[in-house]
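Sanity check. The docking grid for calcium ion depends on where the pocket ends up, so I'm generating a full predicted complex first rather than guessing from homology. Inputs follow.
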Amino acid sequence: MQKSPLFVRSLGYLALISLNFADARVARSEDGPKYGPNAQAFSLGQQKAYFEKGAGPDFFRLLPFYSHQDTGSACSLAALTTLLNAVQSMNLKRSVNASTKNFTPQEMRKNLLSADYVARMSGKALQALKVKQSLGISISEFRDVVEKTLVKADLTAEKPDVKLVEFKKVEGPHRAQEKAQFLSDLKKNESSGGDFIILNFLQGILTGDPEGMIGHVAMVAAYHEKTDSVLILDPDGQYYEPYWAPAQKVFEAITDARADRKSPGYLVVTVK
Ligand SMILES: [Ca+2]
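Predicted complex below; grid placement will be based on this.
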């Protein structure tokens, strides 16, 4: 399929000037592979090894609510939709019943989200400019959106804990400790159903698509310790399905300074 030179997709934080960046992107060969060496489509089989010992609780909680972004800047909103539906299904405050609706981006825009965030998720730079914003969102700002939306949706018995784990913008010896923290969080998250990880990352590092070298937001569905790989629920459904990626590459993708205009990082959301 022919991609428009101004085609903008899957961005977590796109400044207005990024339209120029998108312009400059190198179009991938139409005949090239869908995924590079750092991503394996979920449908291609690694899950067989993952399921040998049974999947973690997040996988079953999140997969039924996997959401695609509906605009070029709404990846974080898609992840938020998945998160809210997953938390709602946990019946932490009240049990779902026949009248309980699933959350959808359309209804959330109308009834749950701030005008500011809605404009930033619109995919339309001028609409974002009207509220003095640019398209997309930084992970630190998204932390606040996740917390406020979970509270407003009133799905938990206790106030949700939304922790931002930030990385230094520059490379250095601190990366070893940061990676150890990330792996520790992945392992803990994999074993517990009461917490979830939301990544902010440079999509192209994982997919191999030069057009994807921009910030992106997605939930972690699983961590397979045996193969040291992470199942990413990439909301860029126009092009991708969930895929496995080596934890080392995921770490590189989330620490890359280009992933976030402020400072790169990820969220650990704990609900009770
Ligand atoms: Ca978990």
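Relevant for the grid: The chain has eleven helices and nine strands.
Also worth noting: The beta strands are 13-14, 40-41, 135-136, 161-166, 195-202, 215-224, 229-233, 243-246, 265-270.
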